[in-house]
Amino acid sequence: MFAAEAYNVEQGVTNEGFPFERANPGDGGLPAQCLFNSTTEDGVGVDDPGDVARFAAFMRLLAPPTPSTSSPGGTRSIQRGADLFRSVGCALCHTPALATSPSTFATARRTRALSDLLLHDMGPALADGISQGAASGSEFRTAPLWGLGQRIFFLHDGRSSDLVETIQWHGGPGSEARSVIGRFFGLSEQEKQQLLNFLRSL
After folding, report:
1. Whole-angstrom Cα distance, residue 162 to residue 165?
2. Read out DSSP for 90-150?
3. How far apart, in whole angstroms, are the C-alpha atoms of residue 150 and residue 200?
4. How far apart are CA 181 and CA 92, in angstroms?
5. DSSP 62
6. What pTM was computed for the model?
7. Whole-angstrom Cα distance, residue 106 to residue 95?
8. pLDDT (tens digit, 0 to 9) for every residue of the chain, 202 residues total?
9. Which of 50, 65, 63, 64 is nearest to 3 (CA)?
């Protein structure tokens, strides 16, 4: 389902799961000269599972980012940061590991995405006003933190390029993370840096 929707929404390719174009000529979404197919652009044949099935298999078997054990700050700093990450409460939502459904692939039986994959109310400061499914405009699925060390922008809308500022955004009024963020800012400067080193090692 995820692959099918992404193929349609991000690439504009209709498929069996999402057979309709995202916009129609004349509604302001696309120019009238755009061509629209009456049948799906990606289909399943007798000997062809289709692109959506290939995308799903690719995502299922894609290896997660490999965290660094020594950079930045050294191994001891990163380990201490991981301990602080748990002790202040970040790991309550950014869960270090989750068991997955049964799989024939041993590497897919556990995920270390650092997310509980659940919705949390982050309060009006982070709210984007967009309701999707059961999520209100201030509720967000916990973002996986794997690969965070390679990211330049943070939060759902990329509003921050600074990790401390990003953490601070989590602590606004009405946010479920408010008390956790308070504990982070109660750490010593050295401890805060160790926690940041852990995050940047991911």
Report:
1. 5
2. GGGTS-S-EE-S--SSGGGSEE--S----EEE--TTT-----BTTB-TTEEEPPP-TTGGG
3. 8
4. 12
5. P
6. 0.77
7. 20
8. 888 988 888 888 888 888 887 765 555 566 666 666 677 787 776 677 888 888 888 888 888 899 999 999 999 999 999 999 999 999 999 999 988 777 776 666 678 899 999 999 999 999 998 888 889 999 999 999 999 999 999 999 999 999 999 999 999 999 999 999 999 999 999 999 999 999 999 9
9. 50
Beta partners for 141?
A: 119
The residue whose two tokens read 């995820």 is 2
Which amino acid belongs to residue 13?
Answer: V
Question: Scanning the structure block, which residue is given the tokens 């748990």?
Answer: 86
Dist CA 84 CA 77 (whole Å): 10
